[in-house]
Amino acid sequence: MLNASLLGLTRPEVTAKFDAIVDFSELERFLDEPLRTYSSGMVARLGFAIAIHVDPEILVLDEVLAVGDARFQPSASSAWDRWQPAAQRCSSSRTRWRS
Length: 99
Hints:
This protein has helices at residues 2-6, 11-25, 40-52, 72-88. By secondary structure, it is mostly helical. Helix 2 packs across helix 3 and helix 3 (40-52) packs parallel to helix 4 (72-88).
């Protein structure tokens, strides 16, 4: 909830997107575990799942697609490929794109 709030989602938006975020992250069986027990790859999965479900003005990703296990990397890359064309279509003079 905190990460989603920091990214600008309200509580109702988090509630509405919760299932999609959990499904994408593939961490549903760990939801009752404290975040401090998650591996770095699990935290990266969760963070990316939240970020990909937000409509940010600015999104900075640094090596997040390289983190995680081999099973998660294709789904993260696929989500990024779906999101990338929309980001490139932005006509704002503030938009900078680098792949």
